[in-house]
Amino acid sequence: MKEYKGTSIIISHDRYFLDKVVNRIVEIVDGKAEVYEGNYSYYIREKQERYESQLAKYNQEQKKIKQLEEAAKRMHEWAKRADNEAMHKRAFSIEKRIERMDKTDKPVIEGNMNTVFQEYGFSGKDMVYAKGLCKNYGDKKVLDGLDFLVQKNERIAVLGDNGSGKSTLIKIITGEAEADEGIAKMGDSVRYAYLPQIVTFENPRLTILETVIQALSLREGQARSLLAKYKFKQEEVHKTVENLSGGEKSRLRLCIMMQKDVNLLILDEPTNHLDIDSREWLESALEDFAGTLIFVSHDRYFINKFGSRISEISDGKIIDFYGDYEYYKEKKIFSRQENKEEVRVKAEKRQHEKIETVDKKAKESEEKHRDLEALIDSLEANLTDINCSMENCSEDYEALDSLYKEKVKIEAELEKLYEKWLTLSETHQSHY
Q1: SS3 call for 394
Q2: Please, what is the end-to-end C-alpha distance for the chain in angstroms?
Q3: Of 144, 188, 232, 277, which residue has the fewest beta carbons closer than 10 angstroms?
């Protein structure tokens, strides 16, 4: 996209992509377009600055309007007491001035879901321990002797190609799947919450309200207040869970998860179905979480923000990179460059060996060529001698017959040698 010289119009929730590619952002707000001349990070800063500037201007105008309204009110009161029509006119003039003023709309930022994860203390060091994990699906080996150790307060992004075994590893850790070989266990004091890639509920026919009441043993009023923080308001709480979108199901599961006492969060593609506002809310909640975090994600912005260790699954095993996504990316680029250099060196070696082989074959071909020419010269000389002998003994029938047979034999052999010489000559030329 960076190399493309034309104009692009992009709709995306991928903030990392937007940061890298776009130079202008258009946000649709209440049916109107608000333009920001920069990438996503610029848009976030500029939006906050515009909000603060507009709010300051609005507050200043409201203060001025209040002063003018109070002045007009006092003048009307004075005019009544003094029966002074001129004072009334001055008050009316102030009120007209208020009406004619260019007024700034009060800026609105959609209310954030101000919630935090409930946390539970943990005294140990090792949160998750996995050794020698193997897992096959039919003929496909997904995990092959994988080792994975997670320690307290680590924030680990598990990356890998599609089908590399990321979700399989998470499911084995949480007990949703069993390894064919190896062990996986959690520390004794670990209390975890797990957000799967595809969120399901035990009874999808319950409403949102009923689901939360049942899961958290809350009264209706408490459940409504909690759901409101997660943007489930008024009649929305009566929607059945089975009719929710993927993003709404994730939000509802997070609502329940965040009320539990946990010290380990395991998230499988947590931002997959969330819009940008919901992603930023989730990030805000995770920033305040002091426990251990393991997550699978393709959201590079999210990975860069929370991953302090990148664990990449490749060929059934884990390779660890102790840094954020940018560090991981640099290491991968460097590794690819090293691999390219190795490939280049091997290719040069193969080419050199090929040239040596060609040279050797050319030399052998040249030697054969010379030997063949020497043999042809010898036979041609013999043929010349036979022709001379045949002329000298033209009266001796038996000698002539013998010489003729020898001549035919030599000519047949020469014909074969000429063909062989021609083939060898073509081969010899191809080596160069």
Answers
A1: coil
A2: 45
A3: 188
Residue 209 CB partners (closer than 8 Å, separation 6+):
220, 223, 224, 227, 237, 238
Q: Residue 369 class from Cβ within 10 Å (0-12 exposed, 13-18 middle, 19+ buried)? A: middle
Q: Where are the beta strands (DSSP E) in 4-76?
A: 25-29, 32-36
- Looking at domain 126-323, its CATH superfamily turns out to be P-loop containing nucleotide triphosphate hydrolases (3.40.50.300)
Count CA within 13 A, CB hemisphere, residue 70.
6
Per-residue pLDDT of the chain (432 residues; tens, 9 = 90+): 888 889 999 999 888 899 999 999 999 988 889 999 999 999 989 988 988 898 999 899 898 888 888 888 887 777 777 677 777 787 788 888 888 888 888 887 665 555 666 666 655 688 999 999 999 998 889 999 999 999 999 999 999 998 899 999 999 999 999 999 999 999 888 889 998 888 889 899 999 999 999 999 999 999 999 898 888 888 889 999 999 988 889 889 988 888 888 889 999 998 888 888 888 888 887 887 888 999 999 898 899 889 999 999 999 999 999 998 888 988 888 766 655 656 566 666 776 676 667 667 767 777 777 777 788 788 878 878 887 887 777 677 777 778 778 888 887 887 777 677 777 666 655 554
**CA torsion 214→219→223→226, rounded to 10°?**
-120
